[in-house]
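Example 3.2
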Amino acid sequence: MVHDIKKEGKFSYLEVGEGTPMIILHGLMGGLSNFNGVTEYFSKRGYKVLIPELPIYSMSLIKTNVKSFAKYLEQFIEFKQLDEVILLGNSLGGHIGLLHTKLYPQKVKALVITGSSGLYENAMGDGYPKRGDYEFIKKKSEDVFYDPKVATKEIVDEVFETVNDRNKLIKTLAIAKSAIRHNMAKDLPHMHTPTCIIWGKQDNVTPPNVAVEFHELLPDSDLYWIDECGHAPMMEHPNDFNDILEHWLQKRNF
């Protein structure tokens, strides 16, 4: 998929298709291309798919936190004059979607989370001191997936570059700490937005029990599993992911 990134004001984003707005939120180490399968599929089925580039490495350090990104998302929705959006987030993107939904519930028609932080995540662990070790970063990147081959050289190179850039590393650690601090366990029972939870059965970063806890705490949620799948179901099993999501959207009349 090759689509031009639009740059308007302070926003850079992809926009494909027409119809119900579906905003996709990428994770901390995840690029826009992680959602190629979702974008191609739903942009041809009555959805306007938008993927904003989150300012993960360009915000000031003091604003490098989950709440700032949730507010940035709200500014993007205002800028695009959208209403009743569907938010779809993976990993940190799921967390941003959850917090945005808590802060601005009137704007969000439905929420989709997959491998989301917000309750627990096992990030890079104690791996950062070995950031100069390419093989170590390669192994960490492969561990994100059930099938290590999904971690292409391009993906590994991007992670390696990120953790070896001092500014990006500091921002990455700040966001990771912010995600841990901003635990949403007490918020979730009060959030009544319909939520679709799609999880990899072999997710090592946000293990399956995290998905179960999200499902138990969110009052209006449905939980779906994808087997032989790690932390990024939309990358590892895009067809299964799209089938589950389309079924859920149809069931809920979205």
